Amino acid sequence: MADTAAPAPVRGSWRRLAIGLFAFILAWQVPHLRAILPIEQTAMLLVPIVAVCAVLAWRQGGRVWIAVAGIALSALLLSQSVGPPDSPYGWLARGWTMLLAASFGLVCLFAPAEAFFPRALSALAVAMALGFALLLVTPGGAVRVGNMVASELNRRNDESLARNRDARNQPSVKEAFESSPRLRWLSEETERQIAGIPKWSSVLVPALLAIESLIAMALAWSLFQRVSPVQIGPPLGSFREFRFNDQLVWGVAVGASIYLLPAFSEGRNAGLNILVFFGALYALRGAGIMTWMTRGRTMTAIVVLMILIAPPLVAALAFGLGLGDTWLDWRTRMPARQA
Fold this sequence. Notes:
Layout lengths: L13 H12 L5 H4 L7 H18 L4 H16 L9 H22 L5 H22 L3 H28 L2 H9 L1 H21 L3 H23 L21 H12 L7 H26 L3 H13 L1 H18 L1 H4 L6
Helix pairs in contact: 1-10, 3-4, 3-5, 3-10, 5-6, 6-10, 7-9, 8-9, 10-12, 11-12, 12-14, 13-14
């Protein structure tokens, strides 16, 4: 890519991006997701990345007002209250947000020819390495931060459960539950599910934070591509063709080895986080293959129905397809179908 950026000739769909932004920004409203997201303030994670992209574009002749607006909105979001006033969680969330945005900006600055996904992975690696280095020099280190995040997840969970119980005690809702045992069972089952989430989400914070950060970078990159006439890199490709370097399969192998082998028992949590993160990447790759295979409306409807009925089964299938694509390359072996 040349040093001076040129306007992108192709723009993506605003409708799909709007749906993605809406889902990501409001994800914390869903009790199950609220107990999973390491950073609940998803807008705070997203906007600074857009601002960094806008500043880099301004250096190459882009519109200054986009950069100024991005910086101002980022400052506003970062200055707002995050979590309880007396909790250090807020500073932790703000610190990671700024670290991630700065890392993404540096990668974009020094690797302008790279596609989005290698940039995002590199930025994530830089941010994680710097974050780990900071943990090493911080009193209490990883244990203190882990306890802090676990406490925050439990606090959110307690709030969600309290809201659910308050809603269930409303007279109209009480009547509905009394007339429908099935509805009452569904509410109680939902409570049990929510109550059990922090037990494992607190263990998987590094992997979940990495996944959340990748989503934020992808949405920020797509949004910037649409609002700025000057681009600092290629747009996102089609999800149907999503793939990445096959060497990342070693991430799955290393994570599984550390988690499963008795010799690495002390590092099981680290192995599990590595396995979950790279497993999610391969499940996403497999989902792209499934989208490529099911271009017709009937097949798409069948896949959506399967997701609603048995999401773990679909996730396992997507992971298998994505992992198998490393050696089988499904999209070149199977004849392309017309949309």
